[in-house]
Design brief:
Largest sheet: none
Family: Belongs to the VKOR family.
Order of helices and strands: HHH
Helix content: over 70%
Subcellular location: Membrane
Membrane topology: Multi-pass membrane protein
Distance between the termini: 35 Å
Strand content: under 5%
Pfam family, one: VKOR
Domain Vitamin K epoxide reductase: 18-68
Number of helices: 3
C-alpha cells in the first residue's frame, strides 16, 4: 500500500512537486528495504525455505530504493538537517 502511494506521488511530481513528495519515495523505500531485509533473514534462518517471489520483490525494492536515494538523497539529507559536504 505504501509503495503504491509513493509511486503515485513520484508519477505525479511534475504536477505538484512539493518537498514532501520528493521525500516520500526514499523514506518509504528505506522502510520497505529494512522490512524486506528482516523477511529475508526470517526466510533464511527461521523458516529455512526460500520464496522466489519474495526474493524478486525484495530485489526490486532495493533497486527502487537505490534509484530514489540516488535521485533525491541530497534533498533528504537537507531535510533531515545534514550539511552538504560534512
Amino acid at each position: 500500500v505504501l509503495f503504491s502511494l509513493a509511486l503515485d506521488r513520484y508519477l505525479n511530481m511534475d504536477l505538484e512537486r512539493t518537498r514532501y513528495n520528493v521525500l516520500l519515495l526514499p523514506l518509504v523505500g528505506l522502510s520497505g528495504s529494512a522490512f524486506g531485509a528482516y523477511l529475508t533473514y526470517a526466510e533464511a534462518f527461521i523458516i529455512h525455505q526460500w520464496c522466489p517471489f519474495c526474493l524478486t520483490a525484495f530485489a526490486l525494492t532495493l533497486g527502487a530504493t537505490f534509484f530514489a536515494l540516488r535521485t533525491y538523497g541530497a534533498e533528504l539529507k537537507n531535510f533531515i538537517g545534514g550539511n552538504d559536504g560534512i
